[in-house]
Amino acid sequence: MPDRRFTNRPLIAAACAALVLAGCADSQDRNIIQRVTDGTVTAPEEFAVVPNNPLELPEDFASLPPPVAGAPNRGEIDPRSRAMAALSSSGTVRSTRSAADRALLAAVGAANNDPQIRARLEAEDRLYRQGNRGFLLDRMFGQQSESDIYRRKLLNQKAEMERMMAAGVRVPQSPPDP
Fold this sequence. Notes:
The chain is an all-alpha fold. The chain is built from nine helices and no strands. Helices cover 46% and strands 0% of the residues.
């Protein structure tokens, strides 16, 4: 006849493990299923994550400036200013361009950029939007979409490809129509 003391051992071990794991959860973890179903759990913005600069040891600690409350950290990366430097014709990124990149930029005239291009394009867009304000009901109910406003400006890809082919320009093969 088997000993009854050992038949309940797996059940007791599972109950102890469940109790231990339940005790490890904090108040935020207990309601995770409810928060996921409610939509109150937000994922981190993956494009807002930037790498840190490598740590640097200063040559002389006495030459370091005193810390100032609210001043930016010297080791912090400012992604906005780096992007502006990369997109503009000035900045430290310019020296890291390859010879092919410099030749391409010279061929398209990147050095002759218009510093007022953004303001001019904004003014032209404002005029275009005033003349093309979308449908009446959309304006009345605030449902005006960008696709309605710029519908006449969209490029017909197939017609453009056929125009280029008729002009003798080699174009890549287009995918079949759905």
